[in-house]
Design brief:
The structure holds two protein chains of two kinds. Chain A is an alpha+beta fold. In chain A, about 35% of the residues lie in helices and about 20% in strands. Chain A contains 13 helices and 13 strands. In chain A, strand 2 (about 25-30) and strand 3 (about 35-40) form a beta hairpin. Chain A is globular. Chain B is mainly beta. Chain B has helices spanning about 5, 55-60, and strands at about 25-30, 50-55, 65-70, 85-90, 100-105, 110-115, 120-125, 130-135, 140-150. Chain B has a seven-stranded antiparallel beta sheet with strand order 3-4-9-5-6-7-8, with no helix packed on it. The chains are: A alpha+beta, B mainly beta. The interface of A and B includes residues 88, 295 and 328 of A.
């Protein structure tokens, strides 16, 4: 059995941990150098704000009512790593799925529901983040349970057991079919037309019909909804919140940088294929839990301007990977890594990026990337890649100037960035 | 938090062990072993593990521990907290009377000593500063318990 535990409006919740003023009021977190809303508190949603809306399009009357914060990925990455470490203590296996979502293995637990509730309460008390948990015989059911838990708890901080939902094929009729993991908007519209409105309706369709009309992928989703896990389910959400590439390494790897570089290269290819650009990068590494090594670290950085450029992403990966490894080298454990991943988040449509006076896309680099993709599409992935460009000897200097003054590249001009409460000595919260 | 929850918190919560993700700075107990001549008599007693790790000592529960900076205008000096001190705040400890706590009070974070007097929660500071007697109908939001405060003396 699987569990899926994820933070409620995670970025907003992270901001609220350290800023009591933000509790119970509309909060918006902006990404892409303060361009668009990437996270909304429920109060902000009620004002009619939508994820992805550029903030300048929001009428003044509404903007005055919301508290605006710039995305603080250093803070979110730190709190996310704390949550993973709490889960590692409670569950035999944890699969990091995104910065705010983790799948957990519930097999062998005496009371999975109680353990998930315990995890939920610990995360709330120890880290200060409210979350919801879904349980199910397959990942898709766990995800469905998570959505139903969110609905029945209304994402309340003190929801307790109402924030945990055990989904079975018989109790998912309250879940709309478009909210089923793996059902895109396009499929949902077609399914609705033939009278399939809920997850339960989809599970009840004849398998042959689903396979012939919608393909093997949706048939697999359906099988999962019936409580039969499909092992090698592609762990990639059809929505466009993020692109994650992660693998369990074949063996314990001492130097994971090459693997991370490959993940980043693949992620960038997917990014460009979908016509998107990434506003932030997130990297994580795990030790080998089977050898009692519970090492987990994750770090994130924003890009000064949403990028499609593999070279720029690789430089950032190198920078973050090095930071994590320095951290690991000081400990006694995790000298070898079992799993790692790269996530591109804070995604925007590449053609809708807003340039300002100082930052714009590096068009030359991006044209180069397009050529690279065409070559790789024709002769196979990995025919042409970036070597020295992204992987300078001795590591790329993250503060290397590309435009204007030094460190311009790594410091987007953010107006409402909260301090790095958990990652910088000079920015610790001051207690009166 | 209210008085009932105070009474129920006799049993401290189970603490998890330190996670590997936390940085460690190890201080060797013996700076150097004799390189030649007679083997050091201490060598038999000195093993790889015999290192002192301040993180291990100061941080019982890494996932729940946050560092903060005291900036309370000397109001906690009677309790040994000076301005500029580093506070090691643990959110996994249930607050009990006698603990030094970081509380949310009137919209901001403040560090105070937690007491119970005449069935009321009292947030106390140094002598000369009137303690806050929390009205019965007001919930005290304890953000975390101060496990250590570190003063720099140089």
């Amino acid at each position: 059995m699987f569990g899926l535990i994820d933070g409620n409006t995670f970025y907003v919740s992270c901001e609220r941990v350290f800023d009591p003023k933000l509790r119970g009021v509309p909060v918006v977190v902006l990404g892409n150098g303060d361009g668009c809303c990437i996270a909304l508190s429920p109060e902000a949603k009620r004002l009619g704000l939508k994820i992805g809306t550029p903030i300048f399009q929001v009428p003044d009357a509404i903007r005055k009512q919301v508290h605006v914060r710039s995305a603080n990925f250093a803070l979110y990455g730190d709190l996310s790593a704390r949550i993973v470490s709490i889960l590692r203590d409670l569950f035999p296996r944890v699969e990091v799925y995104s910065i705010d979502e983790n799948f957990v293995d519930l097999d062998g637990l005496k009371d999975p529901f109680a353990t998930c509730l315990e995890a939920r309460e610990r995360i709330l008390r120890w880290v200060g983040i409210p979350s919801c948990a879904g349980l199910g015989a397959s990942r898709t059911l766990a995800k469905a349970g998570n959505k139903l838990a969110k609905d029945q708890s209304k994402r309340a901080v003190n929801a307790g057991a109402r924030a945990v939902f055990h989904a079975t094929p018989d109790n998912i009729d309250a879940l709309a079919v478009e909210d089923v993991w793996g059902v895109g908007r396009k499929y949902a519209a077609r399914l609705n037309k033939e009278g399939v409105q809920t997850a339960a309706d989809l599970a009840a369709l004849p398998t042959d019909h689903v396979r012939s009309r919608y393909g093997v992928v949706l048939a697999r989703t359906q099988t999962e909804l019936r409580g039969i896990p499909c092992g090698d389910l592609e762990l990639e959400e059809p929505d466009r919140k993020q692109i994650v590439v992660s693998r369990t390494f074949g063996r314990d790897v001492g130097d994971p940088m090459e693997a991370l570089a490959i993940f980043a290269t693949v992620a960038c290819e997917k990014l460009r294929k979908r016509g998107l650009a990434a506003g932030a990068l997130w990297v994580w590494l795990d030790g080998n839990p089977f050898k009692g090594d519970t090492f987990h670290a994750s770090r994130a950085v924003p890009f000064p301007f949403p990028t499609q450029d593999t070279a720029e992403v690789l430089r950032a990966v190198r920078f973050l990977g090095k930071a994590i490894r320095t951290q690991a080298a000081r400990g006694r454990r995790a000298q070898a890594y079992k799993r790692g991943g790269v996530g591109l988040t804070d995604l925007v449509r590449a053609d809708k990026r807003q340039t300002d006076l100082f930052f714009g896309p590096d068009e030359r680099a991006e044209r180069g990337m397009a050529v690279l993709d065409r070559i790789n599409a024709k002769w196979g992935r990995g025919t042409v890649g970036l070597g020295a460009a992204g992987w300078r000897v001795g590591g790329a200097k993250p503060r290397e100037a590309r435009i204007g003054s030094s460190d311009a590249q790594w410091r987007p001009t953010l107006q409402a960035l909260s301090p790095s409460y958990t990652t910088k000595w000079s920015e610790l919260l001051r207690v009166r | 938090m209210n008085l009932n929850s105070l009474a129920m918190t006799r049993n401290p919560p189970t603490l998890i062990g330190p996670i590997g993700a936390w940085t460690r700075q190890e201080l060797p107990m013996l700076a150097a072993l004799a390189a030649c001549g007679f083997p050091s008599p201490a060598e038999d007693f000195f093993r790889e593990d015999d290192r002192l790790d301040l993180n291990d000592k100061l941080i019982a529960n890494p996932a729940a521990t946050f560092l903060m900076r005291a900036d309370c205008g000397g109001s906690m000096i009677d309790y040994g907290i000076h301005d500029g001190d580093l506070l090691v705040v643990d959110r996994s400890i249930n607050a009990r009377p006698g603990h030094t706590v970081v509380v949310l009070w009137e919209g901001g974070f403040t560090v105070k000593k937690l007491y119970v007097r005449d069935q009321r929660i009292v947030l106390a500071a140094s002598a000369g500063i009137a303690p806050i007697r929390v009205p019965e109908d007001v919930e005290v939001d304890v953000w975390g318990v101060v496990r250590w405060s570190l003063t720099c003396h140089v």
